[in-house]
Amino acid sequence: MRLSVGVKARALFGTRWPDWISVGKQLLEEAQFRGELLGHVVPSEISRLLVGAWTGVLLITENIPGGDLSREISNLFDLVLPNIAAPGVLAELDTSPYRAERLLGAAAPAEPARTA
Fold first, then answer.
1. Coil, helix or strand for 16?
2. Three-state secondary structure along 21-79?
3. Using alpha carbons only, how large is the chain's radius of gyration in Å?
4. What is the spatial distance between Cα 91 and Cα 6, in angstroms, rounded to a whole number?
5. Cα separation of 55 and 44, whole Å?
6. pLDDT tens string for the chain (116 positions)?
7. What's the burial of 46, exposed, middle or buried (CB within 10 Å: 0-12/13-18/19+)?
8. Distance from C-alpha of 3 to C-alpha of 5, rounded to nearest angstrom
9. Measured between alpha carbons, how far is 74 from 80 in angstroms, rounded to an integer?
């Protein structure tokens, strides 16, 4: 993170932010094509906003006692998604904290049975 936000580090090494913005823009364009976004959404603008907001949330969360990045990102998406996602899609989205952990846990292969 220091390499991404430090002015001197960015001057020396650059940043991956443009790549993240590009990926987000592509994903939002696909969602727009499928009719999953509200009509006013401009994918490039939303992508830049989300990368900046995510970065800011990470910086703050890392520097406050008891910071919980999963919960804070969940709160961010709860705030932003109603303003960009079509209502039918919004009803299907799960932005709860620890969603990724639950999904990964459900996808984990069962341990093989032990034989005595």
1. coil
2. HHHHHHHHHHHHHCCCECCCCCHHHHHHHHHHHHHHHHHHHHCCCCCCHHHHHHHHHHH
3. 18
4. 38
5. 17
6. 554 565 565 565 556 678 889 999 999 999 999 999 999 999 999 999 999 999 899 889 988 899 898 999 999 999 999 999 999 999 999 999 988 888 888 776 666 656 55
7. buried
8. 6
9. 10
Please check whether residue 47 is in contact with residue 41, taking contact to mean a CB–CB distance below 8 angstroms: no
Which amino acid appears at position 78 of this protein?
Answer: D
> Is 0.90 topped by the overall pTM?
no
Length in residues, the chain: 116
